[in-house]
Amino acid sequence: MTIQNTSRRDFIIKGSIAGGGLMLGIGALPEFALAQSGGAYDQNSPMKTGEPEINAWVSIKPDDTVYIRIARSEMGQGTRTGLAQLVTEELECNWKKVKTQSATPGQSLARKRVWGEHGTGGSRGIRISEDYVRRGAAAARIMLVQAAANQWNVPVTELKVDKGVITHVPTGRKTTYGKVAELASTLTPPDPQSITLKDPRKWTVAGQPYARIDTANKVNGTKVYGADLQMPGMLCASVKSCPVFGGKIVSYDEAKVKNLRGVKGVVQIDDATVAVVADTWWRANTALNALPIVWNEGKASNVSQGDIDQMLRAGLDEQGDFWQRKVGDAPEVINSSAKKVEAIYYTPYRAHVTMEPMNATVKISGDRAEAWVPTQNGEGSHAALSEATGIPLANCEVYKLDSGCGLGRRGSTQDFVTYAAKVAMKFPGVPVKVLWSREEDMTHDYYHPIAMAKMSAGLDAGGNVTGMHIKVAGQSINATLAPSAIKDGKDERQLQGLYEKGPDAQLGYTFPALLTEYVMKNTHVPVGPWRGVNTNQNGIFMECFMDECAKAAGKDPVKFRQAVMQSHPKHLGVLNAAAQKANWDKPLPAGTYRGVAQFMGYASYSACVAEVSVDGNVVHVKRLVFALNSGHVVNPYLTREQIEGSVAMALGAIFNPEITVENGRIKQQNLDSYPMIKLASTPRIETVLVPTYDFWGGVGEPTICVVGPAVANAISAAIGRPVRNFPLYKEGLSLA
Amino acid sequence: MQLNINGQIHNVDVEPNMPLLWAIREVIGLTGTKYGCGVAQCGACTVYMNGEPVRSCSVPVSAVGATKITTIESLSKDNSHPVQKAWIALDVPQCGYCQSGQVMAAAALLKRTPKPTDADIDNAMSNICRCGTYQKIRDGIHVASGQKTLAEVLAQYQASPATRG
What we know:
The complex is a heterodimer.
Chain A: E1 2-5, E2 11-14, H1 31-36, E3 58-60, E4 66-70, H2 79-91, E5 98-102, H3 105-110, H4 130-152, E6 159-162, E7 165-168, E8 173-176, H5 177-184, E9 235-241, E10 248-252, E11 263-270, E12 273-278, H6 281-290, E13 293-296, H7 305-317, E14 323-327, H8 330-335, E15 339-347, E16 359-365, E17 368-374, H9 378-389, E18 396-401, H10 415-424, E19 432-435, H11 438-443, E20 451-459, E21 465-474, H12 477-481, E22 514-520, H13 535-553, H14 557-562, H15 569-581, E23 593-601, E24 604-615, E25 618-629, H16 636-655, E26 661-662, E27 665-666, E28 684-689, H17 704-719, E29 734-735
Parallel strand pairs in A: 4-5, 9-19, 17-18, 21-22, 25-28, 25-29
Antiparallel strand pairs in A: 1-2, 3-4, 6-7, 7-8, 9-12, 10-13, 11-12, 14-22, 15-20, 16-17, 16-19, 20-21, 23-24, 24-25, 26-27
Chain B: E1 2-5, E2 8-11, H1 20-28, E3 46-49, E4 52-55, E5 68-70, H2 82-89, H3 99-112, H4 118-124, H5 134-144, H6 150-156
Parallel strand pairs in B: 1-5
Antiparallel strand pairs in B: 1-2, 3-4, 3-5
Helix pairs in contact in B: 2-5
């Protein structure tokens, strides 16, 4: 097999290697190569510089193939398909002829960020870009129709368009987008703000349960992930950082590994990280494991989980200026109430465990750097590449590859790009793939932050809430990733879902008195966003405690909530929808119990009803019913898949063993000590979508935070005592 | 040594302790078989040895001998295996990284048990999917085994074959 460099980024594959495998990779994955392998067109092929186009969003070929440019990353959440549906809706092209391309950060920079943000996190992929993407598509439609009118010399008002076919109504004359595309591209684009977009209630392409545009090559092994890249002359590296965060390398003995088969060298990436480079990754990793390294583990090497837990627990009793929201004097009101309810909750560190471990491939040729990387933030990868190499941004390019899971790990932290860039700098002209072992990936994550909460409420004689005091103690994501966002020691982000106001994560209850406090307790363990971020623990704290209050009040958990939700119609709407779908008011078979939760995150409203039975200490989760109001629904089928997907991660988070710290390092190294939920434990999941068509909410993350509390509340109902310590083995429980 | 992969004999010059996974991926060049954990927990590396699913990350090439290895690339030439067809029709994969292994595990189950019960599916499908596609995997096996129609399953999600675009 030979691969020839025919241009800067496009390589052509000739022949195939023995065994029928194809060496794929490098910039544009050639379409014919994928066809040869039985795979479909790769929907993630980067667009080419200078390609003819109607505008930045749409390029139409003479054969009527429509290429829609997508700037957001795809990691299975379906944003590519959803954005393509939105474009098709406004463009009125033929869906069967739609293909997508990936807009690259380098081209975006050169074109003054014409595609806007590339970042794909916070369930923002569609909701933040829908407006300008739809306007871009509508502008292209207007130009195409105008081009036909110009060509025929007829008024544009006499034309209609359907699935990319333009008809002159009076004469019946027809043409297609492909035939007028070239002329259209020469016209002056309309002012995007002058365009009236379609009413989402009247959508015919968007809003439909269309099939994903990119499934075919995921079922036959031909989809190329970053970990799979193979390029001519490529070297592979495995990395190891000091097991204790904050520790440093003292020395390593390169001589012990440099003669091992395939090894090309050892590269110190920074003061805490070393890489072994070899002809294949397995050889690199094997040599890395054999490399004697002396670490100075630093001052955190005596910190263990008990110390961290103790610090958080102490934080719950600290007095100080921690408040972020205050309505009346909640502590005083609670103390003078007829009944006082109190509970302390604990939620642990969690690792992301993207199925595809962290990786990036970088090639540095002279003054130019290129990276091929599964990333949630192409522009972040671009910046990291430039910063690591010292090569100006204009001379850097990033080819985003679809990620084998993102889950928040591949966005705001770009350590994988930095590492690959640093190693590639030692091998000029050679593509270097840096792939982390699962062990390295698990022990050098940016973990879901650990948190505790002390919840207190007062009830009057009628069982009504008089006051609520929420006191959270835990680690701050901003302290790790964005310290400047912390003002006077206060970090609102950690109280996601408990905010007074919308539009993103508003508390759905109105209490006569309320005090919300956050006591920041940082450790040496880096933390970051993890699907659902801080709604995960805050949803558990709030919603498990609401059930404890309901029980103390002798009230039904749904009715108890409804009473304090009258000023929150959208929160109430999903609660009622889930309760109705789950037949909340109808009795269950003996031994089966229900629990409920509602919460808001990512501008969407979620509720869940769980049905469980508990057999001894073993919990069977039998059924989960969700209601989601995401404002609009671009693809109901894929929206449901995101909800189904959130279940595995959320159930794992409340049942499976957690990430812990021992002698400064992460104790769990791989999936044998940090297991994942499997199919057999997954309950039946039913979803009711209740969009109100008056806002744009996210879909990927919102529902994850209601799974845990709904299941926990059902368990509490079953066993007759509250569960407060997560994961639930700490309560003596396991998942069937 | 020689490896029989997808019906072809490959002469490979590798260390005997190299896991079969890495010989397949990095020496033979078939990257459909994925690395997920390296300790036989996740199943992303599932291949068949003489027709039986194994986790290739934990099989040294020295243990392979004349065993016939089958990888995802040879399950069908054109996505025509019933599991592949059901997977596409239902959009089972999300990110897709684990799905080579899931498809191989499901196809092996159907070969062994053409009409698997839900308990059979629970027992056989121990591969990890971090996107949480488990419900769709179960649906996919129901359809691939002919125990449910595509229309029946899609109807559960308020969709039909005609509304899928």
